[in-house]
Amino acid sequence: MTYDRLVCANCAAPVNQGRCPVCRANRARMQQEGGPLSGLSPAALVALVALLVAVMALVAHQTA
After folding, report:
1. How many CB atoms lie within 10 A of CB 24?
2. Among the listed residues 11, 30, 31, 7, the one whose alpha carbon sits nearest the alpha carbon of residue 21
3. Model's pTM, two decimal places?
4. How far is CA 30 from the centre of its chain?
5. Contact between residue 14 and residue 8 where contact means Cβ atoms under 8 Å apart
6. What is the residue extent of each domain of the chain?
7. Cα angle at 45 between 44 and 48, to 5 degrees?
8. Contact, 8 vs 17, CB < 8 A?
């Protein structure tokens, strides 16, 4: 999940704006937790999974 769509329960502003200390702390925490695929959009993740399934099907078909 990206923090650009989250709304702060403390100040009701978007977390990515960092208006209050709670927003800033959560924004910093989420930036640190980002994994190797955290920057990809959902569409790119779906395309990556589809490509992986296609490659696995091709390998399975060639070994059979």
Report:
1. 14
2. 11
3. 0.46
4. 10
5. yes
6. 1-33, 36-64
7. 85
8. no
- Distance between CA 63 and CA 48 in Å, rounded? 23
Per-residue H/E/C for 4-36: HHCECCCCCCEHHHCCCHHHHHHHHHHHHCCCC
24, 18 Cβ separation under 8 angstroms:
yes
Confidence of residue 5 (pLDDT cuts 50, 70, 90): confident
User: Encoding tokens for residue 64?
Assistant: 């059979």
- Average confidence (pLDDT) over 25-53: 83
Amino acid letter, 36: P
Whether 44 contacts 55, CB under 8 Å = no
Task: Determine the Cα–Cα distance for residues 40 and 42; give it in Å rounded to an integer.
Answer: 7
